[in-house]
Amino acid sequence: MDAFSLLLAGFADALTPANLMWCLIGVVLGTAVGVLPGLGSSMAVALLLPLTFLLEPTAAFIMFAGIYYGGQFGGATTSILLNTPGQSTSIVTAFEGHAMALRGRASQALAASVLGSFVGGIIATTVVAFFAQRMVAFALGFGPAEYFALAMLAFVSTAAVVTSSPLRGIAALGIGMALSVVGIDDQSGAVRLTFGMPQLLDGVSIVVVTVGLLAVGEVLYTGFRPSRGAPGSVLVSGTPWLSRSDLRRSWLPWLRGTAVGLPFGIIPAGGAEIPTFLSYGTEKALARRRGDSEFGRGAIEGVAGPEAANNATTATAMIPLLGLGLPTSATAAVMLAAFQQYGMQPGPLLFESEADLVWALLASMFLGTFFLLLINLPFAPLWARLLRLPRRHLYAGLMVFATVGIYSAKGSVFDIVLLYVVGALGMLMRRYDVPVAPVLIGVILGPLAEGELRRAMAASQGDLAILVDSGIAVGIYAVLLVVAAVLAGKRIRDRRARTAAEREGPAAVR
């Protein structure tokens, strides 16, 4: 039986009224939970896991898939409106999405986000449905050296491409990597950079860093500079539809973001953070080359591309989960536990032993993507009206929202103190024009890079040649070198242009 026939049979199961209801409930719950800092789709699935044992397996996993998709988009809503990502995968969306909101284009930013999520999700789910078993072989080709090469590519792209000053980008990346090593080392058990505080033994949560830098830092920075915007100065456009110009600027980023995100979901432990940063860097570099860049002031490309990459990665994450039994995200890890609770073991044989459930789940991913579009696109103006609140009320609510979200994650007062310390750091970084993005990518990918480098060195007994011992790793490093060469050439040209302009200035005066 071919994949198309199996998918049609999956739709027959997923389109029953009961399963449609569970899919819709999952999307709504995921969207609602995704907007809360510190929670997210993984916690929603974990909290609902005991309740789903009352359901039959197909209905339970259809609801889980809906939560997964809804949670990915829910985090983008507060990223755009409040500069507060609900999840780490929505960090990049905040950079340009919030700038668009401050220019009165919150509805358009939300529309670009949900349409990007739709495009990325539909294309990626189609790839999963028809090529899942073939792509499992690609995932098996990744080892410690390949993961380390991916981390290096993300570091260079973020520090050099996303930021205007490579030196400040590298400094910010160093801050993020320093934060990432706080706590007990997983491999050696050594205690690092805790300064004698037992509360830091578990490390610094990425949620605390994200909310502190982006939300609390923005509020403190604005609070100390009240002249930067009077209360109620933000005007909100009331239509969720994109203009022809917006569509013309968005459709290629949607496709490029999807292409960037597709392979990362397949890679075990890949995650959606790397492709969103890479997509943002790609769109920013292309805008610079065209000479019409709005990045930093609200470029719609900076919302469209990363959101498509995010949802493409979310969909293809089902390949290693179902085909290898390897989760690539916290939500996928909880879903793996759910499979095991039902007495199933994901792996190459799952497509044969549990074919009905697998294909119904894949069909429900298509349905969840459509539900996501239908639920969120018409309500974009309603969400955007939050920005009509007076600035002082909005920011006061944001501080309460962030504090409650962080406290609810662990019930730790120390995390709240740490939140405001990181917020003060974010305020100083804005004051002195130090970019925030490299800090976040350093915190997220620092442990991955360190852990995979140490595993590679242990496997090769200290031989560095293992880092370039595979075609995949060499290909990634080749891309990295091309990026570095292009950037170096651009900076040399810019320097020569500035020198020529300075020489012509005095001559013109004489």
From TrEMBL:
Domain (DUF112) ranges: 20-440
Keyword set includes Transmembrane helix: yes
Pfam families for the chain: TctA
TM helices/strands, residue ranges: 24-55, 109-132, 138-160, 167-184, 204-224, 319-339, 359-383, 395-422, 464-488
Alphabetical keyword list: Membrane, Transmembrane, Transmembrane helix
Transmembrane helix as UniProt keyword: yes
Name under which the protein is recorded: Tripartite tricarboxylate transporter permease
Originating organism: Marinactinospora rubrisoli
